[in-house]
Fold this protein.
Amino acid sequence: MLCLAVAVPVLVLQLGGYDPTVGPGWLWWACFAGYVFSLTVCTWLVEVLPRPRLLVALAVQALLGPTVVLLAPQAGWTPILLVFTAATSAYLVSRPVSVALVAANTLVVATGAARAQGPGPGVVIAGALYLLLQALSLMAVISQQADVASRQALAEAHVELRATSVLLAGSSREAERLRIARDLHDVVGHQLTALALELEIATHRPGPEHVIRARGIAKDLLVDVRGAVSRLREEGSSLSEALAEVVRDLPHPVVHLAVAPAADQVVDGPTRTALVRCLQEVVTNVIRHSGAENLWVTVDQREGRLHLVARDDGRGAAGMELGNGLTGMRERFEQLGGQVIFIPQKGFEVRVEVSAA
């Protein structure tokens, strides 16, 4: 709106019978319309258009902005357009190029002021004022980009920490279960076996009937211990708890996780690790590349196979090339006898299939 408001003084003067522009009035309006169009492209279509086209739009904006200012040197607020150009450049080009653009724009403002009012202190004041405005807009954008980058890095570290925590906790629990199982088997199990043997010998000698009952109890205890050992070796945290922990307290994007009851079961260590790392990689890519607001993750089981589908509402990845993360994900599941499919259109979708055993 502020950009369009710049044209109001020129319109009012022209309607009043005075044309503040240099040359034909339609030429100024044509350049102004081209500037507004290129600014709109660089601002509203930055997530849609490829970078080469955005750079062309910025170049058109950088050329038409000074033209609009020099064609209407007496319309005092037209140099505001150059401030928009400086701010837009911070998103598309390097810092040295933005600084050079600010310097060129400042020279244009000084030239326009000199043409409007002649040499004098006003030229210096106008140049200094718009130099300051451009510098402030440029620094504001840079500060915003730094803040966004910091929050993105924090979110990525959050996901990685959660995934690592889940895997370490699972590894620790598994190691503790195996240790207890070994202790039960080696200590209690051997003692009960010895007791059963002693009682077996006692049954062949004259004695009270309670010896026979004790032998039966010892055998029952031995069965119970062996059953407890087997259960300790099989127990583990549910898959839904492990995946939910990875995305817990994640501020952005919003993750919608749904694990079907049939899939919410104990899986072996390598498969569990692969699924946790898969979710970590998917969330990290959404944070880093897609710009999505939502991520939907579903896990179900069909015919003894686990199926994980992750889909976001981001910009997608036309002409996608697999990086190290996605390549490692595919290799990890292929080693487990599974497969991974990537669908880059309409957001980004990852489909995983692996054995549930």
Summary: The longest strand covers residues 294-302. The chain has a mean pLDDT of 80.
